[in-house]
Design a protein that fits this description.
Shape of chain A: globular
Number of strands of chain A: 38
Transmembrane segments (chains A, B): 12-30
Low-confidence stretches of chain A: 1-32, 591-597
Cofactor (chains A, B): Cu(2+)
Number of domains of chain A: 3
Function (chains A, B): Catalyzes the hydroxylation of dopamine to noradrenaline (also known as norepinephrine), and is thus vital for regulation of these neurotransmitters.
Oligomer: homodimer
Largest interface: A-B, 22 and 22 residues
Pfam families (chains A, B): Cu2_monoox_C (PF03712), Cu2_monooxygen (PF01082), DOMON (PF03351)
Distance between the termini of chain A: 19 Å
GO molecular function (chains A, B): copper ion binding; dopamine beta-monooxygenase activity; L-ascorbic acid binding
Largest sheet of chain A: 7 strands, antiparallel
Number of helices of chain A: 5
Structural class of chain A: mainly beta
Mean pLDDT of chain A: 87
Chain lengths: 610, 610
Amino acid sequence: MQVPSPNAREAASMYGTAVAIFLVILVAALQGSVPPKTLFPYHIPLDPEGALELSWNVSYIQKNIHFLLLVHGLQAGVLFGMSDRGELEGADLVVLWTDGDRAYFGDAWSDNKGQIHLDTQQDYQLLQVQRTPGGLTLLFKRPFVTCDPKDYVIEDGTVHLVFAILEEPLRSLEDINTARLKPGLQRVQLLKPNISTPALPPDILTMDVRAPNVVIPGVETTYWCYITELPKGFPRHHIVMYEPIVTEGNEALVHHMEIFQCAAELDRVPSFSGPCDSKMKPDRLNFCRHVLAAWALGAKAFYYPEEAGLAFGGPGSSRFLRLEVHYHNPLKIRDRRDSSGIRLYYTAMMRRFDAGIMELGLVYTPVMAIPPQETSFILTGYCTDKCTQLALPPTGIHIFASQLHTHLTGRKVVTVLARDGQEKEVVNRDNHYSPHFQEIRMLKKIITVHPGDVLITSCTYNTQDRKLATVGGFGILEEMCVNYVHYYPQTQLELCKSAVDPGFLQKYFHLANRFNSEEVCTCPQASVPEQFASVPWNSFNRDVLRALYAFAPLSMHCNKSSAVRFPGEWELQPLPKIVTKLEEPVPQCPVIQGQQPAAPIEVSIGGNRG
Amino acid sequence: MQVPSPNAREAASMYGTAVAIFLVILVAALQGSVPPKTLFPYHIPLDPEGALELSWNVSYIQKNIHFLLLVHGLQAGVLFGMSDRGELEGADLVVLWTDGDRAYFGDAWSDNKGQIHLDTQQDYQLLQVQRTPGGLTLLFKRPFVTCDPKDYVIEDGTVHLVFAILEEPLRSLEDINTARLKPGLQRVQLLKPNISTPALPPDILTMDVRAPNVVIPGVETTYWCYITELPKGFPRHHIVMYEPIVTEGNEALVHHMEIFQCAAELDRVPSFSGPCDSKMKPDRLNFCRHVLAAWALGAKAFYYPEEAGLAFGGPGSSRFLRLEVHYHNPLKIRDRRDSSGIRLYYTAMMRRFDAGIMELGLVYTPVMAIPPQETSFILTGYCTDKCTQLALPPTGIHIFASQLHTHLTGRKVVTVLARDGQEKEVVNRDNHYSPHFQEIRMLKKIITVHPGDVLITSCTYNTQDRKLATVGGFGILEEMCVNYVHYYPQTQLELCKSAVDPGFLQKYFHLANRFNSEEVCTCPQASVPEQFASVPWNSFNRDVLRALYAFAPLSMHCNKSSAVRFPGEWELQPLPKIVTKLEEPVPQCPVIQGQQPAAPIEVSIGGNRG
């Protein structure tokens, strides 16, 4: 480790940056030791080869993140950073690189053509560079918000980490074009909630749900299905915690895992262990959809709040569980064996409250559709005051976790709680949502929903690559907009979702027909997907569909289970009136005391280059 | 004049502002002399009593304005500043005030309730305070853009200057509530164009067009009409410049003046001098609408570009001129005499080009309407590529000045030039447009329009105080969206405006009928204003009207005069497709080297208080 010398000045002029006066960033020299792992509670492998590993911690007080990047077998350098949706273009980056003689570290950004430029404001602050037997470690920190317009704003929800290896020395940073690099992407929730771990009961038991000895198929994507069962006569327990068990060496392959409970009505589910899309898969597995546990890459153990647990076992509850493991194997590695799964921690000392899961958002129906070629079309589902008034206890319910869900065109999801026509707080928001990264996330703040409150779930879709309208439905090419909220105490309300009134949609088709010279099929025998498929998508029909969804009354699903509605009139319900909207938080930009130098700093990375 | 002493520290703490470290702003002490008037080319009286006068200059290089505020008969202080539309609430202010003992100057802002607060960032920089026999002068400067979110951004176009007199000493700035002050408002173009004055020809002649010896009526608003005529046989000349002649002492009463030429078809126009709304006014005056010259408060002389002049006199041109003077007399002063008018400078040495005036924007027709209760509804008028292709010379025309025009609900106006589907440049933009302040403004940059170019004029309206839709038309309660552009060389094209196709509007009425349970009149015998009056203005009908205007084909008016179209098909014309839009300029916020103190500075204002 070497503190940057005055040669950094030469480096700056070498890279053509005309900086009259600049400061050398202080590099804290922690002599001879890697910061202990405990300082970095979060850890994720970045690339499938295992060349890059990231650990980090979050300070909500200082509003910054410390990153510890471990580089195995360093070549000529490395790029690491973040971008809106995981592209190496338009990314906010740190770059470590060498010109073959010296090595440098800088805060940079890539433009939309992939050209890399040094930031005028250096917000990634290098704290330590160290060679260890395991590789080179870079310790650096960055504020959540830098106020540099070229920088990514680190928000709650998904962050798309991007990275690439530099194989050859460079004359200058501007010599890099990301188009010539092999791009890497890893999605993660960087801003993990800062929640203290609830105490576990003394009688805690564990149950490992894992598919034993799976041979991971040599294809990029596999969803592996495995059926297991609870012991006969297994009584009612509370699951209070669960954590992933990932087979050593397969950390970069196991992308996400979920345990589903089968429907209580099934008296028997045949054994199965194989790809979920296998022709051999028994049909009955389709009735195993009740989520018990879910984990995704980068997530840690999931703890229920101390006063609640998820009931399983006992009468009225299926003994059959389905484990689903998503293997992400872009290198198409063959013959790798895996026995990953989830370890459930459960107790017979039932906690005060049963936890429940409720579905918010849109009903799975084709009446909710997204025109093709839209970059950010928003669909909104409501849980109305009438439903919460009827179905929630007087003291309300407490939402402590949330799992957002859409299919392939989903880009953002948010659920907002409104009361008396005013948006009050965000239940969960992900501005960089990816359908490929669906975690159950603990909320940073428990949200209490009272009877009469309204829950508004909005999903933003990108259908630029679609030729026809994308309608709502179960199919992977259809869309969903769902927030599975985890709450307690459990109520009968399992599903509080909406869709546009189908009669008003028929008025829309009639109107689209009238406004356009082309023939639009409004024949009553045509299905809604067929009707949507024949709408000519000019600006008028797009705008009017938006106007329809913002105006037409709702068909409400205020249901005890997916098929049983609460008693009451749920058709032609008025759209909740929202008078006051929550404003998206505007970053509070600190007053800048002095300009940081627009120059990389020189670092010593030892003799391990090339 | 006294340089602020260290007592400013005490003042700061007295006002409860906890500033740990702060700097005393340097006040430049110009000993014993008011800065010469020539340093401040622009001048305007602020209040009708003549207590406040403002002079200013603009530096486009330093991007700031120097203000010289003259206060006659200072009482306990004065507020001066700017706000979006002239309210004292939500304003960006400088305040000079006394606590009865000391006097202070500070950069402040008023919240929406009228409470005044000191800015954390002091961007109005006081340069000089001086007592002269004429009163107290305050010299201060401010950048156009301060990057303080509480501050007004000084843009091109109208600025609403606000002011008020403080009559009593204050314990602190927070004691002021604007609701208890008498608000003052003066509209002005602060950012005057920085154009060098074209040379005048040696044979220059002048003609004063003024209404002699008018007794200004003792009412707030009078439009005075006066008919005069050119000498018999007056040959063709070029007007190359004109300037206001305002009777001394009436500077605050004469709000704007225009000279119109009567229609050439009228062989005789009777003499008249009286209010324009007088029952005695001859009807023929309604045919005197061709603008020759226009001036408004704060404007200086208007110069034609050196290669062009406005033709008047000679055959085919009316000898009769109408002068219109708008007297703004809020104090209802009686028996004040006035002979204000405009001095035309003209030459017989005809310049190379005749200048012309062309109308852009919307046709005066009720098919273009604004729903009631809208805060910012936009209507857009087009001058299409087909029309400019047909009517403009191959070398194009050069627009050098522009006068924006709407009726009472107009709030913003902008004209943009587009070429090949891309918006290229702004012809004229006013984000704080007021129908009460319609100047001819020289453009900062001459805009060349080529055949095939498209000119897009958009007006933003506020109809919050209307119960029914506001339709397009000539009436003062109807609306217009017009940009009168002054250009050369003159062409036959007098009018290039559009409206929505009336057939598509009928489809809209039909649709509004179908979507609403209420009965909407779509009977063909009803007039368009009657149809609009019966639309139930729910969100759907508002959104669909917007969608209609953004989609439906145009009825184009590509006219030689208001009644004669160029040959060609002008109905059902496609809406110009704009692929790339101009982005509104984002203020480039300078890097702040150190925080300014959030404290007022103490000033000496001599013994003239109370």
